Structure to design on (202 residues):
């Protein structure tokens, strides 16, 4: 598999979305909360489109694609245009996702499961049914209790790093707290008392 998963800081990165239909809406949603600067160009912009982007209501042109953009999402229903837009991105060395042929672009936008500080991305090389199946079953692993415990351990890790020089010891402390007993306590509504115990002991 040539596509590899990475999490990229998109703050202040310029993203261009070409197209304004249902697919464009889904792709735009993937950037929610990222801090990316999004420009969307389409002849008719869906009224349900979230207020996350600068909207330009006209037909997109290949010349809209410039090196000023970190990434381009090609989401029109015009195959010939999509081909030309893809070629421009390739020629300019710009990252791009092509929605009508997901494997031809150099970026894949996977299904993302987010719960608290936990993010899990699922990609199955162009077989959406597999990604959907895995995504739907992640709820049994990425629970609200686990997300709450992860947030607590993140705070504890910062505290330990400021007070201790032993990285190995810190890892052992964090790993020791990640257990079913603590998850059950959180499920019973004991997060605050657990947090108080954990932070006072370390």
């Amino acid at each position: 598999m040539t596509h590899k998963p990475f999490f990229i800081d998109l703050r202040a990165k310029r993203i261009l979305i070409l197209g304004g239909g249902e697919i464009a809406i889904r792709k735009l949603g993937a950037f929610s909360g990222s801090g990316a600067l999004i420009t969307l160009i389409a002849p008719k912009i869906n009224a349900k489109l979230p207020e996350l982007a600068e909207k330009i209501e006209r037909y997109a042109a290949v010349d809209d694609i410039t090196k000023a953009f970190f990434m381009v999402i090609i989401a029109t229903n015009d195959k010939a245009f999509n081909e030309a837009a893809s070629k421009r991105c390739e020629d300019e060395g710009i990252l791009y996702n092509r929605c009508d042929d997901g494997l031809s672009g150099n970026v894949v936008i996977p299904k993302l499961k987010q719960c608290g500080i936990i993010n899990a991305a699922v990609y199955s090389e162009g077989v959406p049914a597999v990604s959907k199946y895995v995504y739907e079953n992640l709820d049994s692993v990425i629970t609200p209790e686990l997300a709450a415990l992860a947030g607590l351990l993140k705070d504890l890790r910062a505290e330990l790093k400021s007070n201790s020089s032993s990285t190995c010891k810190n890892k052992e402390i964090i790993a020791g707290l990640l257990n079913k007993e603590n998850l059950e306590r959180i499920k019973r509504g004991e997060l605050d008392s657990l947090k108080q115990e954990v932070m006072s002991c370390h």
